[in-house]
Amino acid sequence: MQLRALVFFLFLPSLALGDQVVFRGNYYRDRNTRVLIPEVEFSKESRSGTVLGGHYLLDAITSASAAAGVVTDQPFTELRNEFGVSVGQRIGPARLSAGYAYSSESDYWAHLATLGVVLDLFQHNTTLAGSIAYGVDYVGQRQGAGAVIPKGSLQSFHAILSLSQVLTPRVLANLSYELDILGFGSDVGSVSGTPTPNSGYQGNPYRTVLVAGSPTPEAVPFQRYRQEIAGSLHLILPTPLRLMPYITFRPGYRFYFDDWGILSHAPEMRSYVPMGPVELRLTGRYYQQTEASFWSEIYGKPNYTESTGKRCTTCYFSQSRKSFYTSDPKLAAFSALYFELRLLIDFSQVRRRPRSPFGKWLGDAVLEFSYGHYFNSGYSHTAFGDADIGGLAVTLPL
Amino acid sequence: MMRAMRLLAVCLLATVLGCAPVRPYEREYLSLRPMRPEAEKTEDHFRAHWQGSREGSAGGFGAAGGGCGCN
User: Fold this and answer.
1) Residue B5 burial by CB count (10 A; 0-12/13-18/19+): exposed, middle or buried?
2) A25 pLDDT exceeds 80?
3) Chain B 10-39, residues with CB within 8 Å of chain A CB atoms
4) What would the pLDDT profile of A42-56 be if each residue is shown by its tens digit?
Protein backbone atom coordinates (compact mmCIF):
# COMPACT_ATOMS: atom_id res chain seq x y z
CA MET A 1 0.00 0.00 0.00
CA GLN A 2 2.81 2.36 0.88
CA LEU A 3 4.64 1.60 -2.32
CA ARG A 4 1.60 2.08 -4.47
CA ALA A 5 0.92 5.42 -2.87
CA LEU A 6 4.42 6.60 -3.63
CA VAL A 7 4.36 5.26 -7.15
CA PHE A 8 1.18 7.08 -7.99
CA PHE A 9 2.32 10.38 -6.58
CA LEU A 10 5.64 10.39 -8.32
CA PHE A 11 4.60 8.86 -11.57
CA LEU A 12 2.91 12.05 -12.56
CA PRO A 13 5.40 14.64 -11.39
CA SER A 14 5.54 16.30 -14.73
CA LEU A 15 1.86 16.97 -14.96
CA ALA A 16 1.18 20.60 -14.27
CA LEU A 17 -1.18 21.02 -11.38
CA GLY A 18 -0.95 24.73 -12.06
CA ASP A 19 0.44 27.18 -9.55
CA GLN A 20 -1.57 26.05 -6.60
CA VAL A 21 -1.64 24.46 -3.19
CA VAL A 22 -4.17 21.79 -2.24
CA PHE A 23 -5.14 21.06 1.36
CA ARG A 24 -7.03 17.83 1.60
CA GLY A 25 -8.55 15.74 4.38
CA ASN A 26 -9.46 12.17 3.51
CA TYR A 27 -11.44 9.67 5.52
CA TYR A 28 -11.71 5.91 5.03
CA ARG A 29 -13.59 3.42 7.16
CA ASP A 30 -14.39 -0.25 6.81
CA ARG A 31 -15.38 -2.87 9.36
CA ASN A 32 -11.87 -3.17 10.84
CA THR A 33 -10.01 -0.02 9.93
CA ARG A 34 -10.45 3.74 10.13
CA VAL A 35 -7.95 6.03 8.44
CA LEU A 36 -7.69 9.82 8.60
CA ILE A 37 -5.38 11.32 6.00
CA PRO A 38 -4.60 15.03 6.07
CA GLU A 39 -2.36 16.04 3.19
CA VAL A 40 -0.98 19.07 1.41
CA GLU A 41 0.38 19.30 -2.11
CA PHE A 42 1.79 22.23 -4.04
CA SER A 43 3.11 23.03 -7.49
CA LYS A 44 4.74 26.24 -8.72
CA GLU A 45 6.26 27.12 -12.07
CA SER A 46 8.80 29.89 -12.52
CA ARG A 47 9.08 32.15 -15.57
CA SER A 48 12.08 30.14 -16.74
CA GLY A 49 9.89 27.03 -17.00
CA THR A 50 11.13 25.32 -13.86
CA VAL A 51 8.36 23.50 -12.02
CA LEU A 52 8.73 22.69 -8.34
CA GLY A 53 6.33 20.37 -6.60
CA GLY A 54 5.96 18.68 -3.26
CA HIS A 55 3.55 16.90 -0.99
CA TYR A 56 3.22 15.71 2.56
CA LEU A 57 0.62 13.41 4.04
CA LEU A 58 -0.09 11.64 7.27
CA ASP A 59 -1.96 8.35 7.56
CA ALA A 60 -3.50 7.97 10.99
CA ILE A 61 -4.60 4.34 10.96
CA THR A 62 -6.73 2.78 13.67
CA SER A 63 -7.30 -0.89 13.06
CA ALA A 64 -8.65 -3.98 14.78
CA SER A 65 -5.62 -5.95 13.62
CA ALA A 66 -2.35 -5.44 11.81
CA ALA A 67 -3.50 -7.48 8.84
CA ALA A 68 -6.85 -8.56 7.46
CA GLY A 69 -7.35 -12.28 7.79
CA VAL A 70 -5.32 -12.80 10.96
CA VAL A 71 -6.52 -15.47 13.36
CA THR A 72 -6.26 -13.34 16.50
CA ASP A 73 -6.90 -9.61 16.52
CA GLN A 74 -4.47 -7.18 18.08
CA PRO A 75 -5.92 -3.64 18.09
CA PHE A 76 -3.39 -0.99 17.13
CA THR A 77 -3.03 2.62 16.03
CA GLU A 78 -0.27 3.69 13.71
CA LEU A 79 0.98 6.79 11.93
CA ARG A 80 2.55 6.84 8.49
CA ASN A 81 4.39 9.92 7.25
CA GLU A 82 5.02 10.48 3.57
CA PHE A 83 6.67 13.32 1.74
CA GLY A 84 7.76 13.84 -1.84
CA VAL A 85 9.51 16.48 -3.90
CA SER A 86 9.81 16.91 -7.63
CA VAL A 87 11.49 19.30 -10.01
CA GLY A 88 10.78 19.75 -13.69
CA GLN A 89 12.11 21.88 -16.53
CA ARG A 90 10.47 22.87 -19.78
CA ILE A 91 12.71 22.64 -22.82
CA GLY A 92 10.76 23.53 -25.94
CA PRO A 93 7.84 21.14 -26.29
CA ALA A 94 9.34 18.78 -23.71
CA ARG A 95 9.24 18.82 -19.96
CA LEU A 96 11.75 16.74 -18.03
CA SER A 97 11.23 15.93 -14.39
CA ALA A 98 12.75 14.06 -11.49
CA GLY A 99 11.29 13.22 -8.13
CA TYR A 100 11.87 11.48 -4.85
CA ALA A 101 9.43 10.29 -2.18
CA TYR A 102 9.85 8.72 1.21
CA SER A 103 7.32 6.97 3.42
CA SER A 104 7.88 5.93 7.01
CA GLU A 105 5.93 4.04 9.63
CA SER A 106 6.95 1.94 12.58
CA ASP A 107 7.51 -1.23 10.55
CA TYR A 108 7.71 -0.14 6.90
CA TRP A 109 10.02 2.32 5.14
CA ALA A 110 9.88 3.07 1.42
CA HIS A 111 12.01 5.12 -0.98
CA LEU A 112 11.11 5.87 -4.57
CA ALA A 113 13.01 7.83 -7.24
CA THR A 114 11.41 8.79 -10.54
CA LEU A 115 12.38 10.24 -13.91
CA GLY A 116 9.80 11.48 -16.38
CA VAL A 117 9.37 13.23 -19.69
CA VAL A 118 6.31 14.85 -21.24
CA LEU A 119 6.10 15.89 -24.89
CA ASP A 120 3.51 18.39 -26.08
CA LEU A 121 3.04 17.87 -29.80
CA PHE A 122 0.91 19.20 -32.66
CA GLN A 123 -0.17 22.48 -31.01
CA HIS A 124 -1.02 20.76 -27.70
CA ASN A 125 -3.26 18.26 -29.45
CA THR A 126 -1.10 15.28 -28.54
CA THR A 127 0.65 14.74 -25.24
CA LEU A 128 3.01 11.82 -24.81
CA ALA A 129 4.42 11.01 -21.39
CA GLY A 130 6.79 8.41 -20.04
CA SER A 131 8.07 7.72 -16.53
CA ILE A 132 10.31 5.19 -14.92
CA ALA A 133 10.81 4.65 -11.21
CA TYR A 134 12.93 2.55 -8.90
CA GLY A 135 11.89 1.78 -5.35
CA VAL A 136 13.36 0.14 -2.28
CA ASP A 137 11.20 -0.82 0.69
CA TYR A 138 12.25 -2.21 4.05
CA VAL A 139 9.81 -4.35 6.02
CA GLY A 140 9.87 -5.13 9.72
CA GLN A 141 7.66 -6.80 12.29
CA ARG A 142 6.79 -5.14 15.58
CA GLN A 143 7.52 -7.19 18.67
CA GLY A 144 6.09 -5.45 21.71
CA ALA A 145 6.86 -1.87 22.68
CA GLY A 146 9.38 -0.32 20.33
CA ALA A 147 11.05 -3.51 19.13
CA VAL A 148 11.00 -4.23 15.38
CA ILE A 149 12.49 -7.32 13.75
CA PRO A 150 13.68 -6.81 10.14
CA LYS A 151 11.79 -9.15 7.82
CA GLY A 152 13.11 -8.23 4.41
CA SER A 153 13.15 -5.67 1.65
CA LEU A 154 11.57 -5.17 -1.73
CA GLN A 155 13.13 -3.73 -4.87
CA SER A 156 10.76 -2.56 -7.57
CA PHE A 157 10.82 -1.09 -11.05
CA HIS A 158 7.92 0.79 -12.63
CA ALA A 159 7.29 2.24 -16.08
CA ILE A 160 4.36 4.15 -17.53
CA LEU A 161 3.69 5.26 -21.08
CA SER A 162 0.68 7.42 -21.74
CA LEU A 163 -0.95 9.36 -24.51
CA SER A 164 -3.56 12.11 -24.42
CA GLN A 165 -5.09 13.06 -27.73
CA VAL A 166 -7.53 15.86 -28.51
CA LEU A 167 -9.98 14.31 -30.95
CA THR A 168 -12.35 17.25 -31.45
CA PRO A 169 -12.93 20.57 -29.61
CA ARG A 170 -15.21 18.59 -27.29
CA VAL A 171 -13.54 15.19 -27.00
CA LEU A 172 -10.24 14.16 -25.43
CA ALA A 173 -8.91 10.59 -25.23
CA ASN A 174 -6.36 9.10 -22.82
CA LEU A 175 -4.54 5.81 -23.12
CA SER A 176 -1.87 4.40 -20.83
CA TYR A 177 0.20 1.29 -20.23
CA GLU A 178 1.96 0.50 -16.98
CA LEU A 179 4.46 -2.20 -16.07
CA ASP A 180 5.50 -2.93 -12.49
CA ILE A 181 8.16 -5.48 -11.57
CA LEU A 182 8.14 -6.15 -7.85
CA GLY A 183 11.06 -8.16 -6.53
CA PHE A 184 14.25 -8.79 -8.43
CA GLY A 185 17.90 -9.34 -7.72
CA SER A 186 19.89 -12.32 -6.54
CA ASP A 187 17.01 -13.98 -4.71
CA VAL A 188 14.72 -14.72 -7.64
CA GLY A 189 13.14 -18.10 -7.09
CA SER A 190 12.99 -17.80 -3.33
CA VAL A 191 9.82 -17.76 -1.30
CA SER A 192 9.27 -14.28 0.17
CA GLY A 193 11.08 -14.12 3.47
CA THR A 194 13.10 -17.29 3.05
CA PRO A 195 15.89 -18.12 2.90
CA THR A 196 17.21 -14.57 2.28
CA PRO A 197 14.54 -11.92 2.11
CA ASN A 198 16.72 -9.22 0.62
CA SER A 199 14.96 -8.06 -2.50
CA GLY A 200 11.46 -9.44 -2.89
CA TYR A 201 9.56 -9.45 0.39
CA GLN A 202 5.89 -9.09 -0.55
CA GLY A 203 4.11 -10.83 2.29
CA ASN A 204 2.55 -9.40 5.41
CA PRO A 205 4.52 -10.49 8.49
CA TYR A 206 1.38 -10.38 10.67
CA ARG A 207 -0.87 -12.42 8.41
CA THR A 208 -1.32 -16.13 9.03
CA VAL A 209 -3.23 -18.80 7.13
CA LEU A 210 -4.45 -22.30 7.97
CA VAL A 211 -2.07 -24.80 6.37
CA ALA A 212 -2.89 -28.46 7.12
CA GLY A 213 -4.92 -27.21 10.08
CA SER A 214 -2.21 -25.04 11.66
CA PRO A 215 -1.98 -21.21 11.57
CA THR A 216 1.15 -20.48 9.51
CA PRO A 217 2.75 -17.17 8.44
CA GLU A 218 1.85 -16.58 4.81
CA ALA A 219 4.34 -17.25 2.02
CA VAL A 220 3.87 -15.56 -1.37
CA PRO A 221 6.13 -15.53 -4.46
CA PHE A 222 9.28 -13.48 -4.45
CA GLN A 223 8.53 -11.74 -7.71
CA ARG A 224 5.46 -10.19 -9.34
CA TYR A 225 4.98 -8.76 -12.82
CA ARG A 226 1.98 -6.44 -12.99
CA GLN A 227 0.63 -4.83 -16.16
CA GLU A 228 -2.20 -2.40 -16.74
CA ILE A 229 -3.80 -0.92 -19.83
CA ALA A 230 -6.23 1.93 -19.23
CA GLY A 231 -8.23 4.24 -21.43
CA SER A 232 -10.71 7.05 -20.91
CA LEU A 233 -12.62 9.64 -22.88
CA HIS A 234 -13.58 13.16 -21.83
CA LEU A 235 -16.75 14.24 -23.62
CA ILE A 236 -18.41 17.60 -23.13
CA LEU A 237 -21.94 18.30 -24.33
CA PRO A 238 -22.97 22.00 -24.41
CA THR A 239 -26.56 22.80 -23.48
CA PRO A 240 -28.66 25.92 -24.17
CA LEU A 241 -29.26 26.41 -20.42
CA ARG A 242 -27.57 29.36 -18.72
CA LEU A 243 -27.51 27.71 -15.30
CA MET A 244 -26.09 24.45 -16.66
CA PRO A 245 -24.09 25.36 -19.80
CA TYR A 246 -22.67 21.87 -20.34
CA ILE A 247 -22.54 18.28 -19.08
CA THR A 248 -19.33 16.29 -19.14
CA PHE A 249 -18.93 12.52 -19.22
CA ARG A 250 -15.75 10.63 -18.56
CA PRO A 251 -16.10 6.91 -19.30
CA GLY A 252 -13.00 4.86 -18.54
CA TYR A 253 -11.83 1.29 -18.44
CA ARG A 254 -8.78 -0.43 -16.96
CA PHE A 255 -7.57 -3.93 -17.72
CA TYR A 256 -5.05 -5.43 -15.32
CA PHE A 257 -3.18 -8.72 -15.25
CA ASP A 258 -0.20 -10.11 -13.38
CA ASP A 259 1.77 -13.33 -13.20
CA TRP A 260 0.24 -14.32 -9.88
CA GLY A 261 -2.91 -15.11 -11.88
CA ILE A 262 -4.97 -12.04 -11.03
CA LEU A 263 -6.84 -10.50 -13.93
CA SER A 264 -9.23 -7.63 -13.42
CA HIS A 265 -11.66 -5.39 -15.31
CA ALA A 266 -12.62 -1.96 -13.98
CA PRO A 267 -15.07 0.11 -16.05
CA GLU A 268 -15.92 3.51 -14.62
CA MET A 269 -18.09 6.50 -15.44
CA ARG A 270 -17.77 10.03 -14.09
CA SER A 271 -20.43 12.62 -14.91
CA TYR A 272 -20.01 16.33 -14.24
CA VAL A 273 -23.00 18.65 -13.98
CA PRO A 274 -22.31 22.36 -13.31
CA MET A 275 -25.09 24.41 -11.74
CA GLY A 276 -23.97 27.98 -11.33
CA PRO A 277 -20.95 28.11 -9.00
CA VAL A 278 -21.51 24.49 -7.94
CA GLU A 279 -20.47 21.38 -9.83
CA LEU A 280 -21.88 17.94 -9.04
CA ARG A 281 -19.89 14.89 -10.00
CA LEU A 282 -21.32 11.41 -9.86
CA THR A 283 -18.92 8.48 -10.12
CA GLY A 284 -19.83 4.83 -10.64
CA ARG A 285 -17.24 2.07 -10.87
CA TYR A 286 -17.49 -1.69 -11.24
CA TYR A 287 -14.57 -3.94 -10.40
CA GLN A 288 -14.03 -7.65 -10.87
CA GLN A 289 -10.94 -9.79 -10.37
CA THR A 290 -9.95 -13.44 -10.54
CA GLU A 291 -8.07 -15.17 -7.71
CA ALA A 292 -4.32 -15.77 -7.55
CA SER A 293 -3.28 -19.14 -8.93
CA PHE A 294 -2.02 -20.27 -5.50
CA TRP A 295 -5.16 -19.15 -3.62
CA SER A 296 -7.08 -21.89 -1.80
CA GLU A 297 -10.48 -21.45 -0.19
CA ILE A 298 -12.66 -23.93 1.71
CA TYR A 299 -16.19 -22.96 2.75
CA GLY A 300 -15.51 -19.34 1.89
CA LYS A 301 -12.29 -18.98 3.91
CA PRO A 302 -8.63 -19.38 2.97
CA ASN A 303 -7.46 -22.85 3.90
CA TYR A 304 -4.78 -25.19 2.53
CA THR A 305 -5.23 -28.90 3.10
CA GLU A 306 -1.75 -29.81 1.81
CA SER A 307 1.07 -28.96 4.19
CA THR A 308 3.08 -27.56 1.28
CA GLY A 309 0.46 -25.07 0.04
CA LYS A 310 -0.13 -24.58 -3.70
CA ARG A 311 2.16 -23.81 -6.62
CA CYS A 312 2.02 -20.56 -8.54
CA THR A 313 1.15 -22.08 -11.90
CA THR A 314 1.00 -18.67 -13.61
CA CYS A 315 4.29 -17.20 -12.36
CA TYR A 316 6.63 -16.27 -15.22
CA PHE A 317 9.79 -17.58 -13.63
CA SER A 318 11.05 -20.21 -11.24
CA GLN A 319 8.63 -19.46 -8.43
CA SER A 320 6.35 -22.08 -9.93
CA ARG A 321 8.65 -24.74 -8.50
CA LYS A 322 7.81 -23.60 -4.97
CA SER A 323 4.55 -23.72 -3.04
CA PHE A 324 2.75 -20.80 -1.45
CA TYR A 325 -0.09 -20.00 0.94
CA THR A 326 -1.87 -16.79 1.79
CA SER A 327 -5.03 -15.41 3.39
CA ASP A 328 -4.73 -11.97 1.79
CA PRO A 329 -8.31 -11.01 0.80
CA LYS A 330 -6.90 -9.00 -2.12
CA LEU A 331 -5.78 -12.26 -3.74
CA ALA A 332 -9.27 -13.84 -3.70
CA ALA A 333 -11.81 -13.60 -6.52
CA PHE A 334 -14.45 -10.93 -5.92
CA SER A 335 -16.37 -8.10 -7.47
CA ALA A 336 -17.05 -4.60 -6.16
CA LEU A 337 -19.16 -1.54 -6.85
CA TYR A 338 -18.28 2.01 -5.93
CA PHE A 339 -20.53 5.06 -6.02
CA GLU A 340 -19.45 8.56 -5.13
CA LEU A 341 -20.94 12.02 -5.12
CA ARG A 342 -18.71 15.09 -5.13
CA LEU A 343 -19.80 18.68 -4.64
CA LEU A 344 -17.38 21.31 -5.91
CA ILE A 345 -17.81 25.01 -5.22
CA ASP A 346 -16.07 27.45 -7.55
CA PHE A 347 -15.38 30.93 -6.14
CA SER A 348 -14.94 32.62 -9.51
CA GLN A 349 -17.99 34.80 -8.82
CA VAL A 350 -16.02 36.50 -6.04
CA ARG A 351 -13.64 37.93 -8.64
CA ARG A 352 -16.41 40.15 -9.96
CA ARG A 353 -16.71 41.98 -6.65
CA PRO A 354 -14.13 44.77 -6.87
CA ARG A 355 -14.43 45.71 -3.19
CA SER A 356 -13.54 42.26 -1.94
CA PRO A 357 -9.93 42.46 -0.59
CA PHE A 358 -9.11 38.90 -1.64
CA GLY A 359 -11.39 38.82 -4.65
CA LYS A 360 -8.82 38.15 -7.33
CA TRP A 361 -6.96 35.56 -5.26
CA LEU A 362 -10.06 33.84 -3.91
CA GLY A 363 -11.57 33.82 -7.39
CA ASP A 364 -9.33 30.90 -8.34
CA ALA A 365 -10.10 28.90 -5.19
CA VAL A 366 -12.11 25.69 -5.19
CA LEU A 367 -13.80 23.86 -2.32
CA GLU A 368 -14.70 20.16 -2.59
CA PHE A 369 -16.74 17.68 -0.56
CA SER A 370 -17.11 14.04 -1.51
CA TYR A 371 -18.66 10.90 -0.12
CA GLY A 372 -18.51 7.40 -1.57
CA HIS A 373 -19.56 3.89 -0.62
CA TYR A 374 -17.75 0.70 -1.64
CA PHE A 375 -19.62 -2.60 -1.86
CA ASN A 376 -17.81 -5.86 -2.43
CA SER A 377 -18.34 -9.62 -2.38
CA GLY A 378 -16.61 -12.91 -1.60
CA TYR A 379 -13.95 -13.42 1.04
CA SER A 380 -12.95 -9.79 0.58
CA HIS A 381 -16.34 -8.81 1.97
CA THR A 382 -16.00 -11.33 4.80
CA ALA A 383 -12.64 -9.83 5.80
CA PHE A 384 -13.21 -6.12 5.19
CA GLY A 385 -16.95 -5.50 4.79
CA ASP A 386 -18.08 -2.47 2.80
CA ALA A 387 -16.30 0.86 3.11
CA ASP A 388 -17.20 4.54 3.44
CA ILE A 389 -14.89 7.11 1.93
CA GLY A 390 -15.05 10.87 2.43
CA GLY A 391 -13.01 13.86 1.36
CA LEU A 392 -12.80 17.60 1.98
CA ALA A 393 -10.38 19.71 -0.05
CA VAL A 394 -9.48 23.35 -0.57
CA THR A 395 -7.45 24.43 -3.59
CA LEU A 396 -5.82 27.86 -3.49
CA PRO A 397 -3.73 29.62 -6.15
CA LEU A 398 -0.06 30.33 -5.42
CA MET B 1 -1.90 -11.58 -27.52
CA MET B 2 0.24 -10.38 -30.44
CA ARG B 3 -2.87 -9.87 -32.51
CA ALA B 4 -4.43 -7.75 -29.78
CA MET B 5 -1.24 -5.70 -29.48
CA ARG B 6 -1.16 -5.11 -33.24
CA LEU B 7 -4.80 -4.03 -33.21
CA LEU B 8 -4.08 -1.68 -30.34
CA ALA B 9 -1.11 -0.19 -32.20
CA VAL B 10 -3.19 0.39 -35.34
CA CYS B 11 -5.97 2.05 -33.31
CA LEU B 12 -3.44 4.23 -31.55
CA LEU B 13 -1.86 5.33 -34.81
CA ALA B 14 -5.25 6.02 -36.35
CA THR B 15 -6.22 8.07 -33.31
CA VAL B 16 -3.14 10.25 -33.53
CA LEU B 17 -2.96 10.64 -37.29
CA GLY B 18 -6.65 10.74 -38.05
CA CYS B 19 -7.46 13.92 -36.16
CA ALA B 20 -7.47 17.40 -37.57
CA PRO B 21 -5.59 19.68 -35.12
CA VAL B 22 -7.84 21.67 -32.82
CA ARG B 23 -6.88 25.36 -32.96
CA PRO B 24 -6.19 27.40 -29.83
CA TYR B 25 -9.39 29.42 -30.32
CA GLU B 26 -11.39 26.18 -30.38
CA ARG B 27 -10.27 25.16 -26.89
CA GLU B 28 -12.99 26.84 -24.87
CA TYR B 29 -14.43 23.54 -23.69
CA LEU B 30 -11.10 21.71 -23.45
CA SER B 31 -9.86 24.25 -20.92
CA LEU B 32 -12.69 23.52 -18.48
CA ARG B 33 -11.80 21.60 -15.34
CA PRO B 34 -13.71 18.37 -16.10
CA MET B 35 -11.81 18.13 -19.41
CA ARG B 36 -8.37 18.29 -17.80
CA PRO B 37 -7.03 14.83 -16.82
CA GLU B 38 -4.61 16.28 -14.27
CA ALA B 39 -7.27 18.34 -12.45
CA GLU B 40 -8.17 15.46 -10.13
CA LYS B 41 -4.66 14.16 -9.51
CA THR B 42 -4.63 14.59 -5.73
CA GLU B 43 -8.04 13.00 -5.41
CA ASP B 44 -7.09 10.12 -7.70
CA HIS B 45 -4.01 9.56 -5.58
CA PHE B 46 -6.20 8.98 -2.52
CA ARG B 47 -8.43 6.63 -4.51
CA ALA B 48 -5.41 4.64 -5.70
CA HIS B 49 -4.26 4.51 -2.08
CA TRP B 50 -7.39 2.95 -0.58
CA GLN B 51 -8.28 0.85 -3.60
CA GLY B 52 -4.79 -0.60 -3.52
CA SER B 53 -5.45 -1.78 0.02
CA ARG B 54 -8.69 -3.52 -1.04
CA GLU B 55 -7.99 -4.86 -4.51
CA GLY B 56 -5.34 -7.13 -5.99
CA SER B 57 -4.70 -4.83 -8.95
CA ALA B 58 -3.13 -1.40 -9.14
CA GLY B 59 -2.12 1.36 -11.51
CA GLY B 60 -3.72 2.56 -14.69
CA PHE B 61 -3.91 6.19 -13.63
CA GLY B 62 -1.17 7.48 -15.88
CA ALA B 63 -3.01 9.97 -18.05
CA ALA B 64 -0.59 12.27 -19.80
CA GLY B 65 -2.65 15.42 -19.47
CA GLY B 66 -2.96 17.85 -22.32
CA GLY B 67 -5.99 19.21 -24.01
CA CYS B 68 -6.04 22.61 -22.39
CA GLY B 69 -3.08 24.21 -24.12
CA CYS B 70 -3.21 26.98 -21.52
CA ASN B 71 0.52 26.93 -20.79
Assistant:
1) exposed
2) yes
3) 12, 15-16, 19, 21-24, 26-30, 32-35, 37-38
4) 999 999 989 999 999
